[in-house]
């Protein structure tokens, strides 16, 4: 089929104004926030499930790759069309279809932005807990495709825990529904769980039934300072294994502390080898109890403990945490933060060991590594900054990232706790998953025998 | 292959004393607690993953069905070998391999009994939350295969929420590992979630990494009485949508109340159209707050509210709840409780409607239906008793159960919230799941192309 014929057919399905084929527009869809690149041939902006199904069916017939994209905030190239073909920009399908608070549920289209959903829920006293750093931009479809999470997953879990059901367009254009509004069912395989986190390689999500939670009445924040990250890691093991469930448990190492204090001096984080930021939410008395228990658990290991006494101070602390991504790049104006090897996860009790290994790797490859992240989940974000015009810096970065990945795997961890595999980390899946990767490939072949859905991703 | 040759080979793998082929022994494996029946040719009691893998590989080569079985407490025939072949009795693989409390995890073999695991955890201050009525007998393997839950799932979720990783023997005898001790990972499809709840049709679980939780410091129980089940259902919607998370939320209808009071008069449940039993757990103050909030939410709908003032009263109330299964059969000595159509689930806000429909169905088919169950999850157990020697009673029972199933599906519910599909409910999956059933079949064919794993179950 000629490209112009295909363009005609696509325009027939979604209308002329919803198809892009100009080089300038295509370029905008050729990357995300990772180093993965790939140029699409067409970008389609569907407005309905029927349009998605028709486009996918056409792609199936012609054997053309189809890659779904939300806001393009991904850090692994999950939405980048590495084998060309069609990009489905789902951002126009962004409605809240139903607010069903008697069932503690909402039904949404995948293009809705996380923060917009939460702004719509807030007046009713509810929220959707998964809160990645990109909340202000990322879409629910992206969260579902990557099983996204964020700071509060230590208490609230990941996106998976909030997806009750999905409408999915399969590789041949068939539309199926998985799950339902019934919160507990064992009728059949958990296809919902299979599609969540499959990064658009098995189907394209066009609708989701999500659980929401009642907003907590109260929150409180505690900062604990430590001589070094390993001691902070030990404190985390102690807090969590004593049964406390904080609503956030974050680590900032000394470089990150400096970066934040440099970026915004009025934040004034205490100087320390590492800081743990704990948040507890719930009723007033539960929060008071939780904070006291954390203080108690940390006291023998910390050099200082400071509780946020009021809402303003609490918000300043979280604002500081949210600055990290931007602040990292401010440490040295000649260097740029590059997202490679940045999302490892390890078992909780291996955190001190992994933190120690990271500092060894930093020395070995002579590259500064700043560590922050959701330490309460064992999820560490290792930030590396390089001169992006220097090939040797790239080499150091890639070698350090490779070693970080292999070290995480060797101690029972993962190369990606929340950012996704995409094209960036696919090469490690065989090492991490072993023969389970073969099962993934069998499933991929069964559901997408022509391999048109987001090819080149996740090692399948 | 001759049956005697096969027997020789099986004896070679597991030793003579771990193979049964006598009619008397085989009979014991031909049923569970449902109406599904099927006679195996061999029963094997493996003690290691290697033995399971060798048996499955042999079965794969010869095309012989293999059905795994835990304690046989299932209510849907999941462990019944309806197409004959080999039953793998997993109850000898019952070790706790590791207690890893720094990670809040345990590693177990599938044959361990739920209650034994919890007794082993208790001295350390931890527990494994899923608690089906059969806790004293059922195995973890059965819980995993069925994604079992029970009374506390309204707060703690189902077995799925506690399985971090599995060792699984696939249809051809390959052993894979899914997941790990790392609590958050997005590296690959969630195969763990695919195997959980797949009832042994995709692989046989030989090891599991499970999350455990710290035992709550305090519990409290509240009984609320209502004029009828529909009003109780409305109270449940009100409690849950106001953000309260009780650790149990159970309903007993008037028949069940009578049955319990008849079975054990000293329990002395209040006579009412329906009773809701709420439990709240957590810290002392959180429990006090939770109970007060539930009391408040129920006050305008209930005819009476009674809080258990001490541990003894609380335990008596739960003992009464646990009596239900036995008590149901005491109402009429000529009738026997039959587990058919007993496990529907509906969206929370449809509970009052479903309860009303159940009473209509009871009248239409002239069969008493007693309702109890985990109403906080929308999960209703409908108990029917018949004279099992009377064909007409069976006919009424089956018709009523069929209508209960179809009604649940028609209002967005499920035919099985926690007991499983097995052979008992497979016929409803197409109606409930639509084209998603085709995806299940594709996955089944991809992972078990010869169809040897638990054939005749789940509609695949």
UniProtKB/TrEMBL annotation, chains A, B:
Keywords: FAD, Flavoprotein, Oxidoreductase
Record keyword Repressor present: no
Statement: the UniProt record of this protein carries the keyword Oxidoreductase: yes
Pfam families, per the entry: FAD-oxidase_C (PF02913), FAD_binding_4 (PF01565)
Cofactor list: FAD
UniProt domain FAD-binding PCMH-type: residue ranges: 36-215
An example molecular function term from Gene Ontology annotations: FAD binding
Family stated for the protein in its record: Belongs to the FAD-binding oxidoreductase/transferase type 4 family.
Protein name as it appears in the record: FAD-binding protein
Species in which this protein is naturally found: Methanolobus chelungpuianus
Source lineage: Archaea, Methanobacteriati, Methanobacteriota, Stenosarchaea group, Methanomicrobia
């Amino acid at each position: 089929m000629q490209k112009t014929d295909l363009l005609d057919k696509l325009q027939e399905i979604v209308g002329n104004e919803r198809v892009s084929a100009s080089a300038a527009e295509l370029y905008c869809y050729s990357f995300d926030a990772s180093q993965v690149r790939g140029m699409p041939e067409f970008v389609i902006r569907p407005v309905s499930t029927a349009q998605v199904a028709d486009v996918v069916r056409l792609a199936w017939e012609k054997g053309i790759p189809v890659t779904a994209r939300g806001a393009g905030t991904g850090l692994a190239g999950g939405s980048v069309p590495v084998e060309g073909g069609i990009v489905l920009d789902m951002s126009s399908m962004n409605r809240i279809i139903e607010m069903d608070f008697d069932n503690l549920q909402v039904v949404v289209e995948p293009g809705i932005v996380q923060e917009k959903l939460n702004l719509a829920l807030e007046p009713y006293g509810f929220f959707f807990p998964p809160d990645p750093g990109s909340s202000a931009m990322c879409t629910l479809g992206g969260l579902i495709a990557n099983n996204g999470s964020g700071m509060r997953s230590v208490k609230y879990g990941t996106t998976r825990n909030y997806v009750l059901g999905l409408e999915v367009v399969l590789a041949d254009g068939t539309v199926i529904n998985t799950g339902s509004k019934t919160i507990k069912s064992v009728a059949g395989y958990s296809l919902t769980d299979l599609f969540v986190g499959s990064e658009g390689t098995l189907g394209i999500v066009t609708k989701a039934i999500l659980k929401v939670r009642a907003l907590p009445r109260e929150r409180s924040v505690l900062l604990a300072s430590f001589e070094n990250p390993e001691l902070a890691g030990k404190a985390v093991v102690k807090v969590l294994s004593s049964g406390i469930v904080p609503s956030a448990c974050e680590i900032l190492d000394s470089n990150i502390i400096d970066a934040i204090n440099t970026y915004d001096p009025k934040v004034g984080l205490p100087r320390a080898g590492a800081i743990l930021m704990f948040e507890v939410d719930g009723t007033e008395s539960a929060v008071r109890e939780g904070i006291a228990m954390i203080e108690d658990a940390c006291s023998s290991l910390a050099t200082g403990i400071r509780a946020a006494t009021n809402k303003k101070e609490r918000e300043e602390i979280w604002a500081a945490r949210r600055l990290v991504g931007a602040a990292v790049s401010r440490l040295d104006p000649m260097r740029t933060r590059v997202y490679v090897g940045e999302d490892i996860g390890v078992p909780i009790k291996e955190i001190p060991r992994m933190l120690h290994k990271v500092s060894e790797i930093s020395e070995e490859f002579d590259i500064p590594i700043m560590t922050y992240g959701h330490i309460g989940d064992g999820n560490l974000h290792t930030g590396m900054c390089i001169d992006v015009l220097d090939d040797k810096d790239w080499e150091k970065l890639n070698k350090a990232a490779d070693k970080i990945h292999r070290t995480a795997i060797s101690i029972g961890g993962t190369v990606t706790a929340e950012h996704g595999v995409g094209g960036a980390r696919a090469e490690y899946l065989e090492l991490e998953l072993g023969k389970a990767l073969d099962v993934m490939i069998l499933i991929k072949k069964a559901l997408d025998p022509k391999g048109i859905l987001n090819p080149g991703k996740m090692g399948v």
